[in-house]
Amino acid sequence: MIRHRFSAEDFHRMAEAGILGEDDRVELIRGEVVELSPIGKRHAYVLNALVDLLAPLRGKALLSVQNPLLLSPDTEVYPDLALLQPPRTRYRDRLPEAKDALLVVEVAETSLDHDLKVKLPLYAQAGIPEVWVVDLVREKVHVFRKPQGEGYGEAQALEDGELSVLGLKVPVKEVLP
Q1: What positions does the domain Putative restriction endonuclease occupy (predicted)?
Q2: Fewer CB in a 10 Å sphere around the end CB: N or C, the chain?
Q3: Which long-range contacts (C-beta less than 8 Å, at least 24 apart) are formed by 169-174?
Q4: Angle at the Cα of 115 from the Cα atoms of 109 and 119, rounded to 5 degrees
């Protein structure tokens, strides 16, 4: 099997040429274009809940929902949610990069393996300081902090209690459907 590797620049040119449509749910992972799972109603509910719960951080962080995040020259992902360093004007002429991310959140119903085995190591390598993976099947939130190589030095799975980001406390039970 022959695989063709692409850069993020190639990825954008494919979109500009119409090869990739605006509504295509794809990411660029280590040079390969990967199709994302469709979003179900529980996924959409949790994502909307997170936007609502994290809204008080406005001014401290920019809330970016399902938008591109450039991790390396050959990896551009679309996390469900990212908290980025403000101000938003810094992203007027460029895509947000790993160094801009304060928190990345993935909501997983059918994508848990992909999020934990493929994307999490990429986030760690890129130095994303904190990642939450909301596991809709087991109804828990996996929290990862302190990136080290392709993993995180601190990992926990929460079924209750609180999540904390930038001084904001978020009850785990309010994140889960």
Answers
A1: 9-166
A2: N
A3: 170/53, 170/54, 172/140, 172/141, 174/49, 174/53
A4: 160
Nearest-CA neighbor of 62 among 51, 71, 70?
A: 51
Domain parsing of the chain, residue ranges? 37-175
* CATH topology assigned to domain 37-175: tt1808, chain A (3.90.1570)
Give the whole-angstrom CA distance, residue 173 versus residue 7: 40
